Amino acid sequence: MIKEETARQLVSRALKTIADFDGEIDKYSTAHLHELQIDAFLTALSKFVAEEPVVDNDGNTRPDLKYRVSLSRVLFNKWTTFGDCIIHLVKKSSISRV
């Protein structure tokens, strides 16, 4: 699973690809985004999650493993804030072999 701080950083990076955002991301409403921004945000977030290196318990980077998480507009529409997105990444992410 993706750790909470990493999830927060990934969501923040994805949000910054579509909006000039500076503030507390957890409470920022998802209602501020229009359709094209939602698609761009989800695309960027998917890319950032896939690129995030997996580190094992010994601190070694594992290039044979990748994070995966389901992201869709249906899920996005259920989130009230980007904090909900962070929680989704933490709870629903998994690791799979490349």
Overall, the morphology is elongated
Give the N-to-C terminal Cα separation: 16 Å
Would you tell me the overall average pLDDT? 94
- Could you state the oligomeric state of the chains shown? single chain
SSE run: HHEHHE
**Percent of residues in β-strands:** 5-15%
Helical run tally: 4
- Low-confidence spans: none
Q: Classify the helix fraction into a percent range.
A: 40-55%
Question: Which radius of gyration do the C-alpha atoms yield?
Answer: 13 Å
- The total count of strands amounts to 2
Main sheet strand line-up: 1-2
**What does the main sheet amount to?**
2 strands, antiparallel
Task: Tell me what you see in this structure.
- By secondary structure, this protein is mostly helical.
- It has four helices and two strands.
- A two-stranded antiparallel sheet has the order 1-2.
- Helix 1 crosses helix 2 and helix 1 packs across helix 4 (82-92).
- The protein is elongated.
- The mean pLDDT is 94.
Summary of the model, kept short:
By secondary structure, the chain is mainly alpha-helical. The chain is built from 4 helices and 2 strands; from the N terminus they run H-H-E-H-H-E.
Pick out its properties.
98 residues, two-stranded antiparallel ribbon, 4 helices, 48% helix
SSE arrangement:
Layout: H1 4-16, H2 35-51, E1 65-68, H3 73-78, H4 82-92, E2 94-97
Antiparallel strand pairs: 1-2
Helix pairs in contact: 1-2, 1-4
